[in-house]
Amino acid sequence: MKQKFPFKTDYMYFQYHVLDIERARDFYVNTFDFKVAWDGGKEVGWCELDLPVKGTRLGLNLLPEGSKFVSGSGVLSFEVTDLDKAREILKEKGVPSDEIIDIPELVSYFNAVDSEGNKIQFVGEPRIKE
Fold this sequence. Notes:
- The protein is α+β, with helices and mostly antiparallel strands.
- The protein has three helices and eight strands; from the N terminus they run E-H-E-H-E-E-E-H-E-E-E.
- It has helices at 21-32, 41-44, 83-92, and strands at 7-18, 35-39, 46-50, 56-62, 74-80, 101-103, 107-113, 119-124.
């Protein structure tokens, strides 16, 4: 029987890679009046802004110092209710994906690629809670 993909249907986001997370955050807040939904600052390297379409966000992902920045680089991200199931379904369909990465108390995620090599990230609740 075909398994249903475990999308969390009320939330999705696209993320941009940035070199200066505070400058990027301020740009979107001051230019478009986007509201900050969550901001971990430089320490965490992640900020989320609510977009004008309900349930969508823009994630700002701080690249590590010294990283090569490519303008327009980003990742389509989907929140799922079950990371292991999502990864299993992709594996059954022959979609290449990485191992699940756990950041305790914060998030768990893995990356896959589409038919053209574009990265797709699948994010879930943290599997490791201290």
